[in-house]
Structure formats: C-alpha cells, structure tokens
Automatic annotation (TrEMBL):
A motif (HXTX 2) lies at residues 130-133. The lineage of its organism: Bacteria, Pseudomonadati, Pseudomonadota, Gammaproteobacteria, Enterobacterales. Belongs to the 2H phosphoesterase superfamily. ThpR family. It is an enzyme of class 3 (hydrolase). Its EC number is 3.1.4.58. This is RNA 2',3'-cyclic phosphodiesterase.
C-alpha cells in the first residue's frame, strides 16, 4: 500500500540566529552596496546561518533530532562575516567567513551527520557557512570589494521551521540550545 503523505511533515533546518541589531545593519549595508535589481532581498528577520538543512521531516524524526541536538556539548565561537560571494547557479548572494571558526565547522558537521543518520538527505557539497542576502540572483552581480566585517557570537543554535504563507517565507524557532559546553573556547 502507498502511504498517504504525512501532513505533519515540516520543513526544518538547524541554524545560528543573527542578533537583531546585526540583521538591521546587514539590511542597511545591502541597500547601500548591492544594486536593487541584483536579486530578491531576504527580510531582516530571516537572515540566519544554516548549519544543517533537514528537508521535510516527520514529528517522530524531529523529536529524535531534537534529543540528539540537546546532547551536544560545545562552547560558543565568534563568527566574522568578512567574505561576500555569488553562486549564480543557485542565484544566491551571500556573506560568509574567510576563516570559519573551528567550533562552527564542528557543530555543523555533527548536526549534518546526525541528520544523515536519521535519513535526512545531506548534500555532498562541502559545508560553506553563509548568510543568504539575495535570492534569484542569476545574472552577474557587481559585488563590493569589502564587507562590513561584522561579527557575532554564536552562543546558541536553533531548530527552525520554514513556513510559506500568503506569498512569504517565515522562519519560526522551534527550539534553541546554548553553546556553553566544556570544550575549549574557540
Ligand atoms: P540557502 O540560504 O543557501 O539557500 C532554509 O531554507 C535554509 O536552508 C536556507 O538557509 C537554505 O540555504 C537552506 N537550504 C534550503 N534548501 C537546501 C538544500 N536542499 N540543501 C542545503 N541547504 C538548503
């Protein structure tokens, strides 16, 4: 028998939140440095740094992933957004890190391997931490030579649900976990 589509599936991902003042600064900087025709700007409240994309996930699987996330013991780290780039194939203009902190890479690696073990497809592409600024940027974009070099403290991570309603995407936090573990501060 073919299973009916599970309507309780939700589109989920783990991410680092950006502090609200930084979201506002980035939006202002984007307006000043990227041409409006370059692509569709991501709303300030939606600016985040994805750690692991999970896709459409059942409630049972989400529960397992949340339990595993809760057992992660890692300390926080500083994320410096000092790089900018454009991926024309996915139409994404992004801010990223020239030298991502080890803690960020470790956390993403752990969440991605836990997700893969739970059957959430993980892209074979290497993890490239980034904050998406624009979507739909499929044409060449004149990128500014420098970013604002803003940094933020990754002191917690969250599970988000992506909800599309009335023509807009919203990201709702389902649960957050502190990064206050005992490993050496990075
Ligand atoms: P992006 O910003 O580079 O597009 C919520 O959709 C978050 O999950 C976004 O940050 C998005 O990354 C990421 N995401 C969406 N679909 C994805 C996929 N198939 N593989 C990896 N990441 C994905």
């Amino acid at each position: 028998m073919i299973n009916a589509v599970d309507k309780t599936n939700r589109r989920l991902f783990f991410a680092l939140a950006l502090p609200k003042p930084l979201q506002q600064k980035i939006v202002q900087w984007r307006a000043d440095h990227l041409p409006p025709e370059a692509g569709h700007p991501i709303a300030a409240a939606n600016l985040h740094l994805t750690l692991a994309f999970l896709g459409e996930v059942s409630a049972a699987k989400a529960q397992v992933l949340q339990q595993q996330a809760g057992r992660i013991s890692q300390s926080g780290f500083n994320v410096m957004l000092d790089d900018i780039g454009h991926w024309p194939s996915s139409g994404v203009v992004w801010l990223g890190c020239k030298n991502p902190p080890r803690g960020l890479l470790q956390l993403a690696q752990l969440l991605r391997s836990q997700a893969a073990r739970s059957g959430c497809y993980q892209t074979p592409l290497p993890f490239h931490p980034h904050v998406t600024l624009l979507r739909g940027a499929v044409r060449p974009v004149a990128l500014p030579a420098k970013t604002q070099n803003e940094s933020f403290r990754g002191d917690h991570f969250s599970l988000y649900e992506s909800v599309f309603a009335r023509g807009r995407t919203r990201y709702n936090v389902i649960q957050s976990w502190p990064l206050t573990g005992s490993s050496k501060d990075i």
